[in-house]
Amino acid sequence: MGLYAQAVVAGILSGSVYALMASGLTLVFGVMDIINVAQGALVVLGAYLSYVLQQTFNLDLFLGLIITIPVMFVLGVVLEVLFIRPLKRDRTQLSILVTYAIAIIIEGILGQVFTNNNVTLTAWYTTKSLHLFNFYLPYIYVFAFLLSCVLLAALYVMLYRTQFGHSIRATMQNRVAAQLIGIDVERVAALTFGVGVALTAAGGMAFGSINAFNSGSSYDLISRLLVIIILGGMGSIGGALVASIFMLVIEDVIAVSPAGPTWSSTVFFALLVLVLLFRPQGLFGKLATRAQ
Amino acid sequence: MSLSKARPALLLVLFLVAALFPLVFSNPAITTVAVFTLIYAASGVAWNIFSGYTGYIALGHAAFFGTGCYVIALMCEHWNTPAGYEPFLFVPVAGLVAAVLAIPVGAIALRTRRHTFVVITIAIFFIFQLMAFNLSGITNGSSGMSLPLLLWSGDFFNIPFYYASFILLLLALGAAWWIRNSKYGLTLLAIRDDEDRARGLGVKTAMMKLSAFVLSAFFVGMAGAIWAYFMQNFFPQFAFDPLFDVSVALMCFMGGLGTLSGPIIGALIVIPAQQYLEIQIGDSPLYLVLYGVLFLAVILLLPQGIVPSLSRWWATRKSRHLEAAAESSEGTPGAQQTVVAESR
């Protein structure tokens, strides 16, 4: 029983990291109506950035975020302006292909620079464990959870307490109406994409210190992130939070159950299929209706 | 001579060129590229039947390609099929199994629309790939599978595969052509243009979408089976390859989504380029970078694809021609308008 309780706790903690990455994805979807398939590759890029900073400047992983988050933010804005904005027709479908292409390019560059060998981010907190009520939890899980909470709270404040957040939410609700009341929708889109990508810097650091990764890790990541945002309902940040913790808890519990870790990721996808049989719009989503 | 009159002759010439190609260029290095091109062209035409006509972009057809690979490999293994022409008989069976699997997959995925649909096809693809790894009792897990070892000489080896995939391409093309010119095809196009209105007008959209999805899976499964026998052995990550869908989508977008010849033209450009890059820079990840850049360039510079862009160019040229003729003979200006309307 203790094993299962530990799996639940670990699932909640690592689920928060996925929530961080998925909320960027779902935010971009809500504002721009596009799916950024490159999010997985960007997470891996964020992890490698932390790795480089640690290896060359011996910078602490969490301190390194002060550099990597702005860098990824700028990269996100640049990607939006260069590749997403020029799409005028069939934006929905073409954007998926464009971001897929970006993902492949990032994967290729990372593979060229860092080879395909597995890398792990290490620090004192990735090797030591916290002993708390019979649980042994690696410190990194706890720290990553706290980091996710801080960043998600910051995201909440930004969305609900600032002028920019009001613009974002207005654009999410009705793009045309937002334009009519004087919101620069293009600018909001670029900055939102930047925020979504900036979150991958933190997500990547946490992901890279929990798992070993290489340039090809993005496929596994993006498929999970996509499942999470669909399950939560596309465009719903709260849904993404619930879905990521739900999924990761289930995955971790299956991994310690007799079925074993080989089946835990299958369950991940099978659950999605099951949920969609009953709720095609996801747990918290709105039904896709006809676009006028 | 107008284009429509020249068309049958042109098609016959193209058919003969394709049919005689391996006899003229018998160099195995060239015919190998040709076989890959044909397999991908057939997959592209099949993918286009569903995604091009209905506008639902599926990025999980690699699941059916991989299913085809495993079905032919398992059948050969269980019945101890000797190497030779017999395994080709299993190719349609592989297609059928893929089609049968596509029924529940499509029924679930097609409950959703737009992005959600795309994402679900990707997720279902990953389920298939994980199954291939995890059901190691059947699929041999990560060590992959082998097919009966062919002892044909290097000069001859590619020829049967060339014609098998050529026939598959013709079948897929025939199906695509028939659908495009039938009422069924019109309903698919209606779904692409406005699904709710189509349903309001009495089109059984769910059934139509599902049948197109299953049909495309059938041909993609057969393509997978031929590919597997051609490769002789395969690993699960190459039978269920996420790059397959990227390639097929790239081919169709480059050639022209929803056009008959688009996927073939796309395949003729993409696959030889891909093979060339692979030979030149090997398995280096730079290959991925070039591939992605090509993809980006196509979508950003030629979002409509080669065939629609060319036909628009042709139509404007023709209308300008007619305009000039109308001006010289002071004919009715209506002639120009009808031409423009036709080109849409």
Describe this structure as you would to a colleague.
Chain A contains 12 helices and 2 strands; from the N terminus they run H-H-H-H-H-E-E-H-H-H-H-H-H-H. With 292 residues, chain A is mostly helical. Chain A has one domain. A two-stranded antiparallel sheet of chain A has the order 1-2. The radius of gyration of chain A is 19 Å and the shape is globular. The C terminus of chain A is likely disordered. Chain B is mainly α and 344 residues long. Chain B has 15 helices and 2 strands. A two-stranded antiparallel ribbon of chain B has the order 1-2. At the A-B interface, helix 4, helix 10 and helix 12 of A face helix 5, helix 8, helix 11 and helix 13 of B.
Q: Biggest interface and its residues per chain?
A: A-B, 50 and 47 residues
Mean pLDDT of chain A: 83
State the helical fraction of chain B.
Answer: over 70%
Uncertain stretches of chain B: 331-344
Q: How does the major sheet of chain B shape up?
A: 2 strands, antiparallel
Q: Report the oligomer.
A: heterodimer
Number of strands of chain B: 2
What is the straight-line distance between the termini of chain B?
22 Å
CATH topology of the largest domain in chain B: ABC transporter involved in vitamin B12 uptake, BtuC
Overall mean pLDDT score of chain B? 83
Q: Classify the secondary structure makeup of chain B into a structural class.
A: mainly alpha
The number of helical runs of chain B is 15
Strand order of the largest sheet of chain B: 1-2
> What's the structural domain tally of chain A?
1
| Overall 3D form of chain B | globular
Helix and strand run of chain A = HHHHHEEHHHHHHH
Pick out the low-confidence regions of chain A: 288-292
**Proportion of residues in helical segments of chain A:** over 70%
Query: Which range does the strand content of chain A fall in?
Result: under 5%
- Fraction in beta strands of chain B: under 5%
